[in-house]
Amino acid sequence: MKYVYNPDGSIDAQKWLKIDESERLYLVQQYHRKKRVRLPNARLHAVIHVVVENQVALGAEIPVGGTLSRLMREGLSRHDAIHAIGTILAGHLYELMKEGPQSTDANSTYYRELDELTSESWLNSFNNDVDDE
User: Is residue 85 within 8 Å of residue 92, measured between CB atoms?
Assistant: First the structure.
């Protein structure tokens, strides 16, 4: 099955989930290569994309798809909304590795942070990074 990944287009969840995980990573990396996007760590970037897309494909089981839709309604492109969610995901994974789960439901903090995430807060986080330097 030939699948072309485009983070600005919606994915067909059933087709996406049928693709082997390594192929999904390849497709995401290929998209960024073709667009000549320079990344400090292309593989890690692709992994985050794939995890977010996998979570979106799960549908209503988890709140990621709803967060993606909300961020797009707030003005982010689908690709930027994936990055915004990916930022929360990366922070969550970092905290889990550093501190371990803080409750019996390790994802409750992640879901709460997704609920609090707005396009404005994500865009402003870039300004805060510059101000901190």
Answer: no
CA 123 to chain centre: 15
Task: Look at residue 105 and tell me whether its pLDDT is greater than 80.
Answer: yes
Q: Mean pLDDT throughout 35-50? A: 94
Token digits of residue 53: 């897309």
Using a CB cutoff of 8 Å and minimum separation of 24, what contacts does 56-62 make?
56/11, 56/13, 57/11, 57/13, 57/16, 57/17, 58/13, 59/13, 62/107, 62/111
Does 6 fall in a domain? no
Q: How many domains does the chain have?
A: 1
Q: Which secondary-structure segment (H or E) carries 51?
A: helix 42-57
Whether 3 maps to a domain, the answer reads no
